[in-house]
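Intended use. Records such as the Iron ABC transporter permease entry shown here are meant for training and evaluating sequence-to-structure methods. They are not intended to support clinical decisions.
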Amino acid sequence: MNSWSVSEHKQPRLHIPRHFPAVLALCLVMLGVCAVASLVFGSRPVRFDDLVAGLFSPEVESYGADVVRKRISRTVFSLCCGAALGASGALMQAVTRNPIADPSILGVNTGAALFVVCGIAFLNIGTANQYIWLALAGAMITAVFVFGIGSMGRGGATPLKLVLAGAATSAALSSLVTAILIPRSYVMDQFRFWQVGSVGSADWSGIATFLPFLTVGIAIAFLTAPALNALALGDEAATGLGVRTGVLRLFAAVAGVLLCGAATALAGPIGFVGLLSTHLVRLMLGPDLRYIIPMSAIAGAAILTLSDVIGRLLGSPGELEVGVVTAFVGAPLLILLAMKAKVRSL
């Protein structure tokens, strides 16, 4: 039995939401449509026969088929990155009991960005593997710092205090990033495309580096989901149900940081995917995290991939980075949620 789990006789019985099969089927269909759209649309759309040849006939040599083959790695990475950000958003909302928690809102993405720019400026790094470890370190340190600041004073880590701590930390770290970049034009040239957030530079080596972090983070998220349901009742109620809240928060937070840190390292600080996917899933399925976490991963994959396609279509013949598209959609959502939820606890 896991050290954070609710004891076996107190485990809530798994109740499948009535609309779950329909929602799962809808999300999977949307995921497939977005993946196909990512392969077909871009600066040069391809025909259906080119799509089939590019996927299933390696012996066929044509411009359209070659374009499809080159887009496969980008599509796979956008799916993986979106899944990581979606699951990370669900975990952070559960751990903080904050309905508007998200890696970008809590400053975790900015902490990862600061460590990456420091690595570029002072350590001369330039590979995906180096980016990942620095981004994870920055994300972890920032998460601990924000939670520590938000826990000070009466009431502990309330949702409002965590959001304010995250916003203040993000602003301070962004200033540090700017201070490092301004006198170093060579660093800015390397960093500016990464900073916006894009999946356009994905390759198979980067995906191979990212997959272990995605697998471990998703596995921990699934294992902690039942106990996180108890945590939503409050620390005292969760402790009464046999949950070791400190250990649970540690494991869930580590999983969230692994997922968002690794995604940020390779794609840049893409915001609002976790926020949007988690709230869409919660709206359809209710509050059970045993469903919210996996479905948020699927929804996040579809949302990020669709945003990448929209960016390519809007910016044709070039492209509009996916981080710009998600921010354009996510910022109004954040304002709406803040007005409706009034930053209340989950």
